């Protein structure tokens, strides 16, 4: 690209670079982000539609989950990519509200664009949005309902709302029970309250049966079978050894030649190998283990010896599962068999191989300290199980959110409508153009209940008017009931969501919108086609990586 200086073109960017500046850049960034937001809007809420996404390999995903839709869409535009990141952050931080955050960011940008068209400077809009977001957080804290973090019935309500927006509506009651039990099982109390590490809850999925056959396992479920048919398939009062070393004779690192002159020598050689493996197995057995779980491989001969000793053995277990087993069984991971002693063993009431669907899985149950549990998700087909797993993930996250920060708000767009009302009153305190930006923020928030209404076949404008009236009359939790198709008090309908989800929503959406609004220059390098392998630095005479 070139600029003119004293009649001379000056090249400052590489050839092929494209650049958009000023209003053009702003317009394009906003438009791209809004298109993304528009595309997920119809999947918001319990009456939202699902999307079918087909990737480059022809794999099909059917989902209603905002973060998953955007992830699969593989958007290209840089500001559209920012919306994908917003959804991802929402998912990582609080686990739910990913569709809402994208819709809200899109609406914030839409309202901002109207102001820009009226010649309001983007920085004024950004500042106004910042003020509005801070106030919105204050209002949310103010209206939130404090709950008891161990109140199972409240936690169940929160879980079933998160489940019901995905495929699980019919099973929300049953599945929410498992979800709440799982989270409470791994919750740890400390001076400031509860801590929940969601990674201690394993979600394992297997197609087959029905979603109602989803189960909670008080322990760890390994998607592996027992290695040898001669081993026991069920061990009660299991003494478990966790191994991080292969039960194999190590191969030498360099090639060695062995001259064998007669069959006796061959036999001696093989015997020696067998003896080494037998020694390994003896060490395991003499430590008192009757179950061995190994992260690495196990030689056939070692399997044979283990079977003879009656040790139930599982191999090639994932590292993440090993970590969960450490927590659940109290065993130490053994990296060198020489060090193995009875103190390293963990325990469980039962270790058993069972058939689940077409596969065999190993259940480690009844652990002393079940700080690790597993939810086994079942469902008719692979795609149903996939979506059920996402729903369970969302539900686990929202229950965790409430246990960690025990405050809830009602759903159905009620908190958004209430915050909008109070923001409008707040906006009146400002005399300048910031007032317009704060009002625009309020309107953007109202688009959430309006979208819920639209997806439920209600008239969005009528709904907005009714919501404003109800909130004006002091009904804080007036929101959209998509099932009955009317405005109702959502607290009375038992529709609750974690406050944490709404806080994250306001923070992420306002930050992302602000960031996109501040863009007035998009400089995009042309995509380079890589031909052949890159040259090494000494060949090209350049720094490595600059190809
Ligand atoms: N039974 C219900 N009645 C009214 N509103 C509901 C009900 N269930 C859910 N909602 C509302 O639906 C919205 C959530 O919809 P949805 O779960 O589709 O999107 P999300 O949570 O933003 O994104 P995702 O779940 O994909 O991460 C929330 O505003 C919630 O209050
Ligand atoms: Mg949701």
Q: Which compounds are bound in this model? A: adenosine-5'-triphosphate, magnesium ion
Strand content: 15-25%
Structural Rg: 30 Å
Helix content: 40-55%
Distance between the termini: 20 Å
Structural class: alpha+beta
Low-confidence residue ranges:
534-547
By DSSP, the count of extended strands is: 23
In round numbers, the mean pLDDT is 84
Q: Helical element count?
A: 16
Task: Explain the layout of strands and helices.
Blueprint: E1 2-5, E2 8-11, E3 18-21, H1 22-41, E4 51-54, E5 60-63, H2 66-73, H3 78-93, H4 98-117, H5 122-143, E6 145-146, H6 152-164, H7 172-186, E7 188-190, E8 193-195, E9 201-207, E10 215-217, E11 219-222, E12 234-243, H8 263-286, E13 291-294, H9 300-308, E14 312-314, H10 319-329, E15 333-334, E16 346-356, E17 359-367, E18 373-379, H11 382-404, E19 407-410, H12 414-427, H13 434-455, H14 460-472, E20 478-481, E21 486-489, E22 496-498, H15 499-517, E23 521-524, H16 537-540
Parallel strand pairs: 9-18, 12-13, 12-15, 13-14
Antiparallel strand pairs: 1-2, 3-23, 4-5, 6-19, 7-8, 10-18, 11-17, 12-16, 16-17, 19-22, 20-21
Helix pairs in contact: 1-3, 1-4, 2-3, 3-4, 3-15, 4-13, 4-15, 5-12, 5-13, 5-15, 6-7, 6-11, 7-11, 8-9, 12-13, 12-14, 13-14
Bound molecules: adenosine-5'-triphosphate and magnesium ion.
């Amino acid at each position: 690209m070139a600029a003119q200086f004293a009649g001379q073109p000056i090249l400052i960017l590489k050839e092929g670079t494209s650049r958009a500046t000023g209003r053009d850049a702003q317009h394009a960034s906003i438009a791209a982000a809004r298109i993304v937001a528009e595309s997920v809007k119809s999947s918001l809420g319990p009456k939202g539609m699902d999307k079918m996404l087909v990737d480059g390999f022809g794999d099909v995903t059917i989902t209603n989950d905002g973060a998953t839709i955007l992830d699969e869409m593989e958007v290209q535009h840089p500001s559209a990519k920012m919306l994908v990141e917003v959804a991802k952050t929402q998912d990582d931080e609080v686990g739910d509200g990913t569709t809402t955050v994208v819709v809200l960011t899109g609406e914030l940008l839409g309202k901002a664009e109207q102001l820009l068209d009226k010649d309001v400077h983007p920085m004024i809009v950004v500042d106004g949005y910042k003020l509005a977001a801070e106030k919105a957080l204050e209002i949310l804290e103010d209206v939130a309902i404090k709950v008891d973090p161990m109140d199972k019935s409240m936690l169940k309500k929160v879980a079933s709302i998160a489940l019901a927006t995905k495929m699980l509506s019919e099973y929300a009651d049953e599945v929410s029970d498992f979800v709440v039990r799982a989270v409470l099982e791994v919750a740890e109390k400390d001076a400031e309250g509860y801590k929940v590490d969601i990674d201690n809850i394993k979600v394992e999925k297997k197609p087959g049966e029905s979603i109602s056959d989803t189960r909670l396992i008080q322990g760890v479920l390994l998607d592996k079978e027992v290695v040898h048919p001669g081993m026991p398939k069920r061990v009660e009062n299991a003494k478990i050894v966790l191994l991080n070393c292969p039960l194999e004779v190590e191969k030498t690192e360099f090639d060695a030649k062995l001259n064998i002159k007669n069959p006796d020598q061959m036999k001696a050689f093989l015997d020696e190998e067998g003896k080494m493996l037998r020694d390994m197995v003896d060490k395991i057995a003499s430590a008192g283990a009757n179950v061995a779980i190994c992260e690495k491989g196990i030689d056939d001969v070692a399997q044979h010896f283990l079977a003879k000793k009656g040790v139930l053995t599982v191999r090639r277990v994932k590292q993440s599962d090993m970590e969960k087993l450490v927590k659940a069984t109290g065993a130490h991971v053994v990296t060198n068999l020489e060090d193995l002693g009875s103190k390293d063993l963990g325990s469980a009431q039962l270790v058993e191989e069972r058939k689940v669907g077409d596969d065999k899985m190993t259940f480690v149950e009844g652990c002393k300290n079940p700080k690790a549990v597993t939810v086994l998700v079942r469902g008719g087909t692979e795609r149903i199980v996939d979506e059920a797993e996402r729903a369970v993930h969302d539900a686990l996250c929202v229950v965790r959110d409430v246990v960690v920060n025990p405050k809830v708000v009602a759903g159905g767009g009620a908190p958004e409508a209430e915050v909008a009302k109070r923001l409008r009153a707040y906006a009146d305190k400002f005399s300048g153009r910031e007032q317009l930006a704060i009002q625009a923020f309020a309107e953007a928030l109202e688009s959430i209940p309006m979208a819920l209404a639209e997806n439920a076949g209600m008239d969005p404008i009528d709904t907005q008017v009714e919501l404003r009236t109800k909130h004006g009359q002091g009904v804080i939790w007036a929101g959209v009931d998509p099932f009955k198709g009317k405005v109702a008090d959502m607290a009375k309908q038992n529709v609750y969501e974690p406050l944490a989800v709404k806080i994250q929503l306001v923070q992420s959406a306002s930050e992302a919108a602000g960031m996109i609004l501040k863009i007035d220059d998009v400089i995009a390098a042309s995509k380079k086609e890589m031909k052949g392998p890159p040259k090494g630095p000494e060949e090209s005479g350049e720094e490595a990586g600059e190809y």
